[in-house]
Amino acid sequence: MSGGGFITFSPADLAAAAPEIVLALAGCFILLLEAFLPSARRWFATFALLAVAGSLYFLARVPAGAAFGGRLDSSPLTLLSGLFLGGSAALAILVAKPYLERTGEEKGEFYALLLWGHLGVSLMTRGLDLLIVFIGLETLSLAFYVLAAIFRTIPASSEAGLKYFLTGSFGSAFTLYGIVLLFGAAGTSRIEALSRPGLAGLPTVVFGLLLLLVGFGFKMSLAPFHAWAPDVYQGMPTPAVAYLSVAPKGASVIVLYRVFAAVFSDGMPDRFRAGLVALAILSMTLGNVVALAQRDIKRLLAYSGIAHMGYVTIALAVFGRDALAAVLVYFFAYLVSNTGAFAAVSALYRDETKPHPVALLAGEGLRSPFASAVLALCLFSLAGIPATAGFIGKFFLFKAALSKGFVALAVIGVLNSLVSIGYYLKVVYVLYMRDAVEPEGPPPLTPADRLALGLCAVGIFALGIFPAGLWQLAQRAAETLPLGGP
Amino acid sequence: MSALLRHQVLTVLVFLPAAGAVLLLLFPRRAAAAAKFFALGVSIVNAAISLPLWWNFDTALRGFQFRETHPWIPALGITYAVGIDGISLVLVLLTTILTPVSLLFSLTHVEKQAKGFSIAFLILETGMIGSLVSLDLALFYFLWEVMLVPMYFIIGIWGGARRIYAAMKFFLFTMAGSLLMFLAILYLAIRHAAATGTWSFALEDLGRLSFTGPVQTLLFLAFALAFAVKVPVFPLHTWLPDAHTEAPTAGSIILAGVMLKLGVYGYLRFALPLFPDAAMRFAPWLGALGVIGVIYGAIVAYAQKDMKRLVAYSSVSHLGLVVIGIGAFTTISLQGSILQMVNHGLSTGALFLLVGVLYERRHTREIAAYGGIAGIVPVTTALFLVATFSSIGLPGLNGFVGEFLILLGTWTSAHRIWAVLAATGVILSAVYMLTLVQRVFWNPVTHDENRKLTDIRPSELVAAAVLVVLMVWIGVRPNEVLDRLRASVESLQETVAARSIAGRLP
Lengths: 486, 506
Prior knowledge:
The structure holds two protein chains of two kinds.
Chain A: H1 11-16, H2 18-36, H3 44-61, E1 65-67, E2 72-74, H4 76-103, H5 108-126, H6 130-148, H7 155-186, H8 203-220, H9 228-235, H10 238-244, H11 247-263, H12 270-292, H13 297-318, H14 321-348, H15 364-367, H16 369-383, H17 389-403, H18 407-433, H19 447-465, H20 468-478
Antiparallel strand pairs in A: 1-2
Helix pairs in contact in A: 2-3, 2-5, 3-4, 3-5, 4-5, 4-10, 4-11, 4-14, 4-19, 4-20, 5-6, 5-11, 6-7, 7-8, 7-9, 8-11, 9-13, 10-14, 11-13, 12-13, 12-18, 13-14, 13-17, 13-18, 14-16, 14-17, 14-19, 14-20, 16-18, 16-19, 17-19
Chain B: H1 3-25, H2 32-56, E1 65-73, E2 78-84, H3 86-106, H4 114-133, H5 137-146, H6 148-158, H7 163-196, H8 203-206, H9 213-230, H10 239-246, H11 249-274, H12 276-302, H13 307-328, H14 331-362, H15 378-392, H16 398-411, H17 416-441, H18 458-476, H19 478-501
Helix pairs in contact in B: 1-2, 1-4, 2-3, 2-4, 3-4, 3-11, 3-14, 3-18, 3-19, 4-5, 4-6, 5-7, 6-7, 7-9, 7-10, 9-11, 10-11, 10-13, 11-12, 11-13, 11-14, 11-19, 12-13, 12-17, 13-14, 13-16, 13-17, 14-15, 14-16, 14-18, 14-19, 15-17, 15-18, 16-17, 16-18, 18-19
């Protein structure tokens, strides 16, 4: 380590880590309650929500600066990303409560694992040391390996768990090798140290960065590292997918941005940028085209997510303060739209032991008007239609790309959104323009369902119509990283 | 008009329907009739608010009136900026009048999911009026795209047999056109920021930019494509017959009456003044495509067996004429084109409405299924005849004035041949429309079902009567409209002339 010797904690360090400590303790608390006071189960979701809120409260109170000898960041960037992650966790808990009640699985483990996974993601965004980031990544992964397989009796769930575990460990190994190489080059695992002049050109560093990109590419389900996502999403409990498909992706992008900002303090080399551009185009195109052929809504949303990570990678390739601010806004838009879509999927399907074919949604527009309307809204938002958050995300993203002269990339991006309309509209069509096939509709919505769906809908419109405030926050957050110019 | 209303009247016009749609969400689903009446009421109030614009509009003024500007996304200089000139004035009024007409017709003809239908229609009105009054390109694009979603649902849920295909095609075609315009708008704003150091999406600011050769051409094409799909200009018209035929009657009225016009409007408002050189360079192409549209649309219309499809193809032909007038770019031809947009909105709106009247009774649009019904439904027949005469440009009615001005203006331009060719389209339109009348209303009765046809209902009659009155009024007093267009058209021509010579900002 840079300083050598042991790290000493001060009370200020502990205060800086309070957001994570709250989550860890809350997870333990819920797990203990599960063991000793199972009758408290119906309060678990509330406890978990309180823990997320408490974590955010402490995050907001931490003074700006680095703790633990410059290893744990507290800045406008971590605050905004904390808001994003906390929103994702809170919505996932709201979706989980009725889902677990319906499936008879309302146990403490689910919430505890979700909170610990959330802890890991939070560490990823705050880590100024690659080891902290890695610990966060592994905490997330371990928690979600288990969450994926939590329905032990359903083969699809076990399959999802195993697949996620195998590909995930593979990805983690890449990340770790990348970190080792960077450590070898810089002599320390501190991200900041990577900005030392002369490092950017070293083959070790470039190779380390590529490995890191592969590792986080797995977590983002960025093509060509995406193959696990459709299978895992399909078998994993929907509320867990609602979190996994949003928060870790955002955290991965923030980590990559942090590392790139350090290494490429003199600008990103063209060849590296070309690679990112290629990844962006591949992921957008592959995700959108393959999504057209999907018949299962969770697989469809998985491929849609792969396509969206392609758009996000545009922001990595463009690389700059505006691009970072744009991608932060993009992730907020993605949070409300994608989580809303999964919340609706969770509410609209009756039987969790079976797959989730789009065709089963036929006629739900009339039978379950609220959930269907929110699902349609979320899909329009994912497609980027104005008045929704999704359009605002694309607006800032393409603006950032065009500002830096990425005209062809922007054109490919918008043409891709045209392709995506094909499959998003297909779902809307099934919802509203086909007659019901199932004799029985989905179970009635619980207040938690309504709250989650309502929050996402409000978020989509609020962001879609009044984006100025968030854009300002995102710009301030983007200034945290040493990105030079806009 | 009170001072308050004078400054906010456009904002009220844009958001009143949307507010009505939000209130409609609270209606119970069973209250179908209440929802329909409420939507109708909102659209009538909106029409009532819009009418004083006609008298309070200062015909002598150039530039925009009734302006209102508020910051929206300050960091990027995006504003909520609205205002109208003569061109938008007539189209806004066309919209506020056609919307209640469509909803009035739908009162008795939309049964399933009436609440959803009413909501979609009101949001559509917000999108249409909003696009017509936006003076900020970001705001314009925003509202322009907002129109797509309700129309997708209107076609897809309440449409005819092939509604799904038609709705999807409509959505994808229009979206494909406008996505590149989205990038072009962003690019303009970025160039403006680079040149001046401040962000703006305002039309007036972006209009000061000038671009050289290929960049201007590409930007122009990105805008022109979006608008050409909407008009639609041949050969991008293939979505139109499907969408117009499969849409429910009210949807067809709005599609043909207003949404097609937005394509031409967008071209006049944005593409021409922003990229004058490229626009002038492509004007011959535009005119040529217009000529093809006029003749092709007319010939294909003649071959149709389905009444609605026939009227839909007639739109391709009529809009071709409008495009010729724009391509010729003389004061007279431009005025004629804009007037003809209104005329087409009225006559085609009325034709779709009356075809809807017949369809609701016989549940077929096959021309061959009718014949000899003039004596059975005399009022419908009379109204249909007036709409037909308007459509084929019979003197005394509105259509004549518009067509005459376009042809006259084009004849005085450098492209006389267009006027000659377009005149054949005028003749062809008489051929297919009168043949339609002949086969549907005259001829002997061949189907016994037709003997029991009931004539037009009071609500349908009122809806149609509004349109017929306007056709006659414009036919008799076209100057009422032309006066309001003159200053705006001249100002547009001057802007284009001035900008295509002198470059302003680097």
